[in-house]
Structures are given as structure tokens and as C-alpha cells.
Model the fold of this input.
Amino acid sequence: MLIKKIALTLYLIMLVSILTTAQDMRDIFDRKTSITWLGLDFTGAKFIGDREKFGSESDIRNTMEAWNNLLIKEADKYDIAAAIQKVKVENAIQVTIDNNAQLDLSEIFSENSKDHLRLKPEHIAEIISSYDYQGKSGIGLMFNVETFSKTNGEGVVWVTFINMDSREVFFTERLTAPPGGFGIRNYWAGCIKSILEKMTKKEFEMWRKKYYRP
Done:
């Protein structure tokens, strides 16, 4: 009798887990669901052209952190919540700030325009699986920068929704946008702003139609 009770309990736990997982994708599109903004990741990034404007390695690291901080400090301008149709988002940008601080930057620069579009969803999944989410759970949103290319005149970002509990990707979509602004920080922050505006106006609703399963 005890064995049957234990088996039933394990079955119910497994069933709840399955149902919870099945609902996660739908939760991304539920306005009430809490989503955690994890920031800009540069693990697979390439900066094409404009090498001299980025400065030293220390300058590059400071600029990557400045981009992440800017999106929080000027949240009205970079409205992440509006882009994903949420009342608000939780912020945990230290997750990407800490990861970016440990990156090897020796090959982050390129003069080859062919490096502009080179990542695939499986590359993003590999990056996501290797991350330290610092105890965060639930649904995370990360922007994985593929390229900031002065040569091509645009930035490329993968918008990635993550199951932080399993370190798996719910879905990831590549978006592009031109830069704009004075100084290297604001110039590429302008690209992120345009990507968020694209999501607000059209892209997120298109993803709802593509991925939402009632």
C-alpha cells in the first residue's frame, strides 16, 4: 500500500511538471506573467569596422556594461516591457554583465563583412545552456548580440526567451536594425532601441501567432 502511495505521488509530481512545462510557452504571451530581463549578451558577438573607436580592451568591457546599464537607467526610452506586452519586467542584468566580463575579446573584432550573419539557433542554444543564471528561475529574456557592423550599417540581435530552470531556449528570433546616435555607446544603443520598437509595433505579435498554442 505504501509503495502504491509513493508511486502515485511521484506520478502526480511528474504530471504537474509536464503540465507546467507545456504552459511555459503560452506564459510568454500572457500579460500577467513575470519575465526577467537578463540584458545584452556578447558571447558570440562580432564588431565589424570602427575598431579604433572602441578603444582598449578595458574600454570595450566598460562599454558592454554601459550598454546594459543604459537600458535600465533610461527604461522609458528602452521600453522592454512594452516590447513584450507586459505590465513590467524584472531586471537581472548582472547575469549578462558578469558573463560578458569573462569573455575572451581577442577575436571580437572583424573586418570581414561575411561575419555579419553567421550564427544559427543552435549556437544561441549552446550559449544559453552554458550560462550562470545566479539562482534566477522562470522565464528570462536575453538579447544575444550577433553583430554590430559599421560596414554593413546595422546590428544583428537574437531575441531569446529562456527557461532558466532548465537552461533551454523556448524560442529565439533574429532581428536587425540600424544604429544611431553620437559616441560609440549611443550609436549602437540606437540599434537596440530600434529593435525594441520593432518588437512593440509588430514582431512580438507575429511571434504570438507563430508560437502560441492554446
The radius of gyration is 19 Å.
